Amino acid sequence: MNLFSMGHKTKIVILSSLALIVVALIAAYVGRDALLNYYAKGKFDKLEKKYGLNISYARLHMPGINEIEIEKFSVVPNERDTLLTLHSAKIDLSLWKMLTLNAEVKRVITDRLHISFIKKDSISNYDFLFKKDKKNETKEDKRDYARKVSDILDMSFGMLPENGDMKDLVMSYRRDSDYTEVQIPTLHISDNRFVTEIIVKADNAEHHWMSRGRLNNNEKTVEAELYSKKRGKVLLPYLNKYYGAEVAFDTLAYRLTETELRGGEIALSGKAEVCGLQLYHAGLSPEVVNLDKGSFNYKINVGKDFVELDSATVIQFNKLQFHPYIKAQKKEKWHITMSVDKPPFDADDLFSSLPKGLFSSVEGIRTSGKLSYHFLLDIDFNNLNALKLESDLKSHGFSILGYGKENLAKMNGSFLYTAYENGVPVRTFIVGPENPGFCPLDSISPLLQTAVMQSEDGSFFAHRGFRLDAMRNALIYDLKRKKFARGGSTISMQLVKNVFLNRNKNLLRKLEEAMIVWLIENKGITSKHRMYEVYLNIAEWGPLVYGAREASHFYFDKEPSQLTPEEAIFMASIIPKPKHFRSSFDENMQLKPWLGSYFRLIANRLSRKGLISEEEAANILPVVKLTGASVNNFPAPVDSVTVILPPEEVNNE
């Protein structure tokens, strides 16, 4: 009897509970508009207060349990131009996600969504977007990169509808008198796939592009492709006017997939690919850079305190591909590791794959054999002195079958040299016996030869173009001072820069310079003896003063073979800043006392080389008497620019 009574009561409780739930659901359904408006008002009020916005709408209601409609919606920052207007929108949400208090857009229909980014002088209507919420962000939040990236992607994927139609979508950017507008007349999304026309208006021109792709929230994948509607080049506007860059391509494709890993880490994998790329920027190359095909198959691992480009990543341009590895981890300070290991590959794959216009000096070069490459850079900003730098390009039966645009052997005989200043030619002369100013190496005092070498590159005759120890020390020095103060260049690098690349000052010149140095040094194209002879005959030793013979007459009215130790050391000191030689002198045309340490350093090195005695080295003082044409530069105001590096910055022997 008790058991029966107990069961009956349980049934009553269950039925009563179900009835209450049904009544609550009915009440919620009936009052859904009021609940929605109440909830939206609370959210919008917070946004308005936090970011200084005025958010308004004419109507917000729910036609169905999982449908939301909004009309005449706008966002206007306080005392700024209108940022966003929307005539109407209908959004269908996932009912299951709503029950779990999450939002997932299943379908969206919009009409006349216009977004206007406007900047007048230094005031914009979108600066609030970059406002950081420092008040609520803890130190751990800042460090948890995986969580931050995951939150952003989850929000982005959650907002991507599986189906939808967007009519008259316009995004514009106005900066003072300049205006760029992107129009999407109709964007149709069906079963996660989309295709649309994009009209771009900028610089009094109109561009018609097409885009297609796939969006999938469940797979956390997005794919997109961009190309010209007429299958010509896609020319990116705006860049030329403000950045002096021109970028055009045939097609651009991108894919991204997010995968959750153990331990709270995430992996981002995908591919970026460009075909028919044309790029021009004076800071990059004096010519248009052409890349037929380039791709980036990537895998990026993101953890709590690190971001890592996995070595499974493949970068390919034309025929050449390699696997880079990069990891940036932050404890107190960043620790960055970068490496590339490329096993033996056909050398011609490298030279035939170089983007045209980027390495013009070796463009067209023909080679045989194989090359391999190893690179490692490890920078721990907690301990910069532990920095590691390794770079080794090895030859495996490598040979040069024919030079390209530039004859890399031209230094072996007489050649025409042009000196440039700021990309403008200032003087041209022959480097060879045809020029009366040319001075063979054996006619230059060993004192001057050695003084210059010990100042610029003490191991010139021992290395093969590079000194990784000097580069490493220079990099540590620059990182500690947070500016470019040292370069670690060898005489070989300076020579190649002046002979082959003098007119080109751009970001990637160092790579071309390194490539030419490696070819000349490792294939013995030009002997060390001849390279140093050319160097001493083209080095600038004063304003438009080039070569050892001209310089020795300019300062001392004598041949380079007749220089005293003091005169040779002084001339070596001029090379780093030749146009500012007067800053080495005081108002009485006497060398400044701070040069004493430099003179002693080089004098001791001359002594160790057996060119002067220890006694002579000990007695050398920073004293010279100018007797050449250089005296005509005085008594002009003394330039205060420091010319000579202090002893600790002079390249070691």
Q: How confident is the prediction overall: mean pLDDT?
A: 86
Give the fraction of residues assigned to helices: 25-40%
Strand content: 35-45%
Report Rg. 35 Å
Summed up:
The chain is an alpha+beta fold and 653 residues long. It contains 16 helices and 27 strands.
Task: Provide a descriptive summary of the structure in words.
It contains 16 helices and 27 strands. The chain has 653 residues and is an alpha+beta fold. Helix 8 (446-456) crosses helix 15 and helix 10 packs across helix 12.
Please outline the helices and strands.
Elements: H1 2-30, H2 32-51, E1 53-56, E2 59-61, E3 67-77, E4 84-93, H3 95-99, E5 105-120, E6 123-124, H4 139-143, H5 145-159, E7 163-175, E8 178-190, E9 193-202, E10 205-216, E11 221-228, E12 234-235, H6 239-243, E13 245-249, E14 251-260, E15 266-281, E16 289-302, E17 306-309, E18 314-317, E19 320-322, E20 324-330, E21 334-346, H7 347-353, E22 366-380, E23 388-402, E24 415-421, E25 424-431, H8 446-456, H9 468-481, H10 491-500, H11 509-522, H12 528-538, E26 540-542, E27 545-546, H13 548-556, H14 565-574, H15 596-608, H16 614-619
Parallel strand pairs: 5-7
Antiparallel strand pairs: 1-3, 2-3, 3-4, 4-5, 5-6, 7-8, 8-9, 9-10, 10-11, 11-14, 12-13, 13-15, 14-15, 15-16, 16-17, 16-18, 17-20, 18-19, 20-21, 21-22, 22-23, 24-25, 26-27
Helix pairs in contact: 8-14, 8-15, 10-11, 10-12, 14-15
